[in-house]
Amino acid sequence: MTSEYPQPATDTSTSTAAPAPQPVAQPVVQPVEEPSPWPSSTAPVPAVPRAETAHDAVHGAADEAAPEAREGRAVQGQIELGPQNGPTGRPMPVFPVPAPLEQHGPARVISMCNQKGGVGKTTTTINLGAALAEYGRRVLLVDFDPQGALSAGLGINSHELDKTVYQLLMERGTDVREVIRETAVEGLDLLPANIDLSAAEVQLVGEVARESVLARALRPALDDYDVVLIDCQPSLGLLTVNALTASHGVLIPLECEFFALRGVALLVETIEKVQERLNPALEVDGILATMFDGRTLHSREVVNRVVDAFGDDVFHTVIGRTVKFPDATVAAEPITSYATNHPGAEAYRQLARELVARGDAA
Ligand SMILES: Nc1ncnc2c1ncn2[C@@H]1O[C@H](COP(=O)(O)OP(=O)(O)OP(=O)(O)O)[C@@H](O)[C@H]1O
Ligand SMILES: [Mg+2]
């Protein structure tokens, strides 16, 4: 039986299906519908001033050349613009601290999705979740990757657990509330996963309404939370389709590197198929530039290309590259508690404020 979905385990960064050899200095020719990450000529990329520190990179440095047409969609008429342009080359809005919530739920569900590996999906899930929890939101993180990196990153040894997201999907009668674990961060809960989940990808194929198993399983918990973040695996297979079917929004982390936009057309196609066939309400919440180094022309060029391609869908917030993220993973903590004053922690707090200001989270 052939699947109508792209096959699982499509990690374009590590795929062994060898693409036609490319001369190193030559830009890759993209499919028509996929904007090329690089100029096809040697035309100069608009200059973005050097950000001296990761903090500058996150908070922005002046760029007089940025067109006003790039103002963010929520910015117009609603959010005050700061005096400087941000790292994406657009005027940097001031995102206010979210007002406290008087009551919680129902949750908005957001999938972190990119079939490319190592782009910051798990790091974003943990740290955005922790930042939203700091702002008083009740947050559920869903580990939807059999590698269990999200669970491990929060200090939960999921290999020892009787009930994980696998049982939730595959064993009828399992209540989501039996599977949810509290984390060390107040207001932040986890639906853990381990390697068992890899079997679900195959076993789900024979299920009735196989694409909406996660959506149904999560439903009883939605009223208890303000935001649910799903950490997808680097694949566009049936598990990721389940995540998209269960979601209101998709957040696409993109690493600031040469081939960042490769494969995004396939991801967008998958999102559109899910919108057409399974979940018409699904929205792309935004593209998040990660591992940004404002000192390199390279990072700035990538961000310019991403903004050219996706405009206001690109978050104003970018996440700087810093070793504090892997350090925090080793410590099994979000960066917001591991290095609370670090610019990386502040970047995820800003992303949380931006998400709320855009209306993508409560
Ligand atoms: N902004 C950053 N700066 C430096 N390192 C980072 C940053 N974000 C993530 N990393 C590190 O890069 C590696 C990959 O990040 P992460 O696990 O979040 O990516 P992922 O998209 O979830 O990967 P996978 O597709 O394998 O699940 C990790 O070691 C993480 O600590
Ligand atoms: Mg991951």
UniProtKB/TrEMBL annotation:
Residue stretches making up the AAA domain: 108-284
Segments traversing the membrane: none
CDD domains according to UniProt: ParAB_family (cd02042)
Gene3D superfamilies membership: P-loop containing nucleotide triphosphate hydrolases
SUPFAM superfamilies associated with the record: P-loop containing nucleoside triphosphate hydrolases
Biased composition range(s): Basic and acidic residues: 52-73
Region annotated Disordered, chain positions: 1-74
Superkingdom: Bacteria
Stretches with biased composition (Low complexity): 1-42
Pfam families to which the protein is assigned, alphabetical: AAA_31
Similarity annotation: Belongs to the ParA family.
Role of this protein: May play a role in septum formation.
Protein's name in the database: Cobyrinic acid ac-diamide synthase
Organism: Kineococcus radiotolerans (strain ATCC BAA-149 / DSM 14245 / SRS30216)
